[in-house]
Amino acid sequence: MKKFGILLGTFVALFFMACEGPAGPPGFDGFDGEDGIDGSIFEAIVFEVDIDLTLNPASNTYSFNEPFSAHSIELFPDDAILVYRLEEVDNDLDVWRQLPQPFFTDLGVLYYNFDFTKNDYTIYLEPDFDASMVDQSLVSNQIFRVFVVPANLGLSSKMDKSNIKAVMNALGVAEKDVQRFTIK
C-alpha cells in the first residue's frame, strides 16, 4: 500500500507540473537593443543658433526661419522639436527658458514662440503692441537651443521639459555635443 501511495503521489505531481493555464496578459514592449528598432540608431540632435530676428510689419512680429537642411537634419513624420532661449548668463552659468516664453515690458507683453514642419522651423517674437517699438536688445544677438527629438525614442511624458539639463540627460546629450551656428 505504501508503494501505491508513493506511485500515486508521483503521478499526481507529474500531472500538475505538466498542466498549463491560460496565457497571461502581454507585457510591455521593450527596446530592441542598443541599435534601436529595426537596426536604426536613435540620435537626438541639438544645435544652437545665434540670430537676429527680423521685423515683419505685416504680421507685427519679429521672426527667423530656417530649413532643417541648412544643418543637414532630416525630420521624420512624428519627430518633435523643443526650443529654449538663453535668458542670461549668471556667474558663468547659462540660464535657459523654454519656449513659448512670455516677456513683460513697460509697453506690454511679448512672447517668444516657435513652430516647425518636417522641413523647417520658425522662431517668433510676438508683441501685443506695435512691434516696431520692441527694444532691439530683445531681437538682436539672440541665442536659441533647438532639440530635435526622435518620436520613437520613448521619452517619458513626465520628463521635466522646462529643465534643459533634464532634457539633455534624457537624450544623452552633453554640452560638447551641441552644434553652434551664428547666422546674421
From TrEMBL:
<feature type="signal peptide">
    <location>
        <begin position="1"/>
        <end position="18"/>
    </location>
</feature>
<protein>
    <submittedName>
        <fullName>Collagen-like protein</fullName>
    </submittedName>
</protein>
<keyword id="KW-0732">Signal</keyword>
